[in-house]
């Protein structure tokens, strides 16, 4: 291509129109191949974070840490790296930077030498009062090396005047607020913690005599472990001497798991309440068909996110399912933009249409969510350019009107299409013939066969309702992350 011969190639992050995933955590006790198993577990959880990955191991005397920017498979498949992480206890983390810059020093797990001994921690979620706590700790003399809210947890544990680690941890948990799942490792214990509402997921597995904490069950499958149970909301689970101990220090709250674990985040083969996420997504599509079905020739999913819902929609409506769009799976999170003139072609690097399938057809286009609308607009236009007669867009969840503050990287309220536009305006924006969303009642019916309890909602569904279960203290106070040193955020230490 002449353009590539004469123009310097620029690499740029593809700005996804999807909700960004959270983070993935994995920890295992008492296994001679602990670090290798953690690497496998993180590989299975790669969809939850692609910016960085790290593993910390404990050999009975010393801790060992390896962190890398990028994907697990690019680093932790190297036997030489795994040799640097010896012996039988290890925890790992895949990162998406929901708080803090994308830099090596923000990659988890974090490690600290405390008076009680070594401590390593991996965190999925966000604290809603981290900045308020951080300001207080800094005034008291604490020194922060990262901009991650996870370091706030480490500082609070270090500062606690309690003698035993468990008491230090409980002391800390009563000070923090937010949606979080924590995996911690000391020289004696492997610990899993879930926030009082259970917003962020955390499960327990077992491999022979070894216990595992992980974000999803798919991470157990890859290492051949069996599923034991979920860590309950507000529960601390301690593994010590090959035994499980449960502590529930909080006042009991009704669980409100993030509803997007069902809709989008969890890998399709992961179990949620003894049912694969894939099955829930098919049910969402079926419910969508009950509410919004119209005459059309084909059901076409946006790959891969819309496939389960489209299958459910097709089965319910008795309409033909076709792969009218094909995804290029070899495109990563960056794409080539040689010149300003062809930047509009970005979506075509990931998707293309099967022209002979969609030509002269009336199409129902199915996806799991609509965020900014930019990608949907380009997909609709692509189908029309391929000869589609009509394109009707159907979304297998309600309108996303509110941002998340519990560990999901997503646009601001002002960037959310449904926050600033009516249904008709959104339809005109994406250039579709019609646009319909699954209702909130339909969403709940598909997932649990119940209506939403407006007093005690069954899920954290703030994306649609604005009903945040935990106070957004930092947001209300208008606090922002401050760089506390002159060291560049791009530096590694």
CATH architectural name of the largest domain: 4-Layer Sandwich
Largest sheet: 7 strands, antiparallel
- CATH class division of the largest domain: Alpha Beta
The best one-word shape is globular
Number of helices: 17
CATH fold-level topology of the largest domain: Glutamine Phosphoribosylpyrophosphate, subunit 1, domain 1
Helix/strand-derived category reads alpha+beta
Task: Please state the CA-atom Rg, rounded to the nearest Å.
Answer: 23 Å
Can you say what the CATH homologous superfamily of the largest domain is? Aminohydrolase, N-terminal nucleophile (Ntn) domain
**Number of E strands:** 26
Describe this structure in words.
The protein is an alpha+beta fold. The protein has two domains: 24-256, 4-Layer Sandwich (Glutamine Phosphoribosylpyrophosphate, subunit 1, domain 1); 278-327 and 345-451, Rossmann fold (3-Layer(aba) Sandwich), CATH 3.40.50.2020. Strands 4-3-5-2-11-10-12 form a seven-stranded antiparallel β-sheet. A hairpin with a 4-residue loop joins strand 8 and strand 9 (190-194). Helix 4 (130-139) crosses helix 5 (150-159), helix 5 (150-159) crosses helix 6 (165-173) and helix 9 (277-292) crosses helix 15 (440-448). It is globular, with a radius of gyration of 23 Å. It starts with a helix and ends in a 16-residue tail after the last helix. The model is unreliable at 1-15 and 333-343 (pLDDT under 50).
């Amino acid at each position: 291509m002449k353009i590539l011969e004469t123009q310097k190639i620029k690499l740029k992050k593809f700005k996804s129109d999807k909700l960004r995933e959270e983070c993935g955590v994995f920890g295992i006790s008492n296994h001679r191949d602990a670090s290798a198993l953690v690497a496998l577990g993180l590989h299975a959880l790669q969809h939850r974070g692609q910016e960085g990955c790290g593993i910390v191991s404990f050999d009975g005397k010393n801790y060992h840490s390896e962190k890398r920017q990028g994907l697990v498979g690019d680093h932790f498949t190297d036997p030489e790296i795994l040799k640097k992480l010896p012996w039988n206890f290890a925890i790992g983390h895949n990162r998406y930077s929901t708080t803090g810059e994308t830099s090596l020093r923000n990659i988890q797990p974090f490690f600290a030498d405390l008076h009680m001994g070594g401590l390593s921690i991996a965190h999925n979620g966000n604290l809603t009062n981290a900045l308020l706590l951080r300001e207080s700790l800094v005034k008291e003399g604490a020194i922060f090396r990262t901009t991650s809210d996870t370091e706030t947890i480490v500082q609070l544990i270090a500062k606690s005047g309690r003698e035993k680690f468990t008491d230090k941890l409980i002391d800390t948990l009563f000070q923090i607020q937010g949606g979080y799942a924590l995996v911690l490792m000391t020289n004696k214990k492997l610990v899993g913690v879930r926030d009082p509402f259970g917003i962020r997921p955390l499960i327990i597995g077992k491999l022979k005599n070894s216990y595992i904490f992980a974000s999803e069950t798919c991470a157990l499958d890859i290492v051949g472990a069996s599923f034991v149970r979920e860590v309950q909301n507000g529960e601390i689970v301690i593994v010590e001497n090959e035994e499980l101990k449960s502590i529930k220090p909080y006042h009991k709250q009704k669980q409100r798991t993030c509803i997007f674990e069902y809709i989008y985040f969890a890998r399709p083969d992961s179990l949620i309440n003894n049912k694969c996420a894939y099955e829930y997504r098919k049910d969402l599509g079926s419910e969508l068909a009950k509410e919004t079905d119209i005459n059309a020739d084909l059901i076409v999913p946006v790959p891969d996110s819309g496939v389960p819902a489209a299958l459910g929609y097709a089965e319910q409506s008795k309409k033909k399912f076709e792969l009218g769009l094909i995804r290029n799976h070899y495109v990563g999170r960056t794409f080539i933009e040689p010149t300003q003139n062809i930047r509009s072609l970005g979506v075509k690097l990931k998707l293309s249409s099967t022209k002979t399938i969609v030509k002269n057809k009336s199409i129902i286009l199915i996806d799991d969510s609509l965020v900014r609308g930019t990608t949907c607009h380009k997909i609709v236009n692509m189908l029309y350019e391929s000869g589609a007669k009509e394109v009707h867009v159907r979304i297998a969840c309600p309108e996303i009107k509110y941002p998340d503050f519990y560990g999901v990287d997503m646009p601001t309220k002002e960037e959310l299409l449904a926050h600033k536009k009516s249904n008709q305006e959104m339809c005109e924006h994406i250039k579709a013939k019609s646009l319909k969303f699954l209702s909130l009642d339909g969403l709940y019916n598909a997932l649990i066969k119940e209506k939403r309890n407006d007093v005690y909602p069954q899920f954290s569904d703030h994306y649609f309702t604005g009903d945040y279960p935990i106070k957004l203290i930092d947001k209300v106070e208008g606090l922002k992350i401050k760089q506390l040193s002159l060291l560049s955020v791009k530096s590694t230490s």
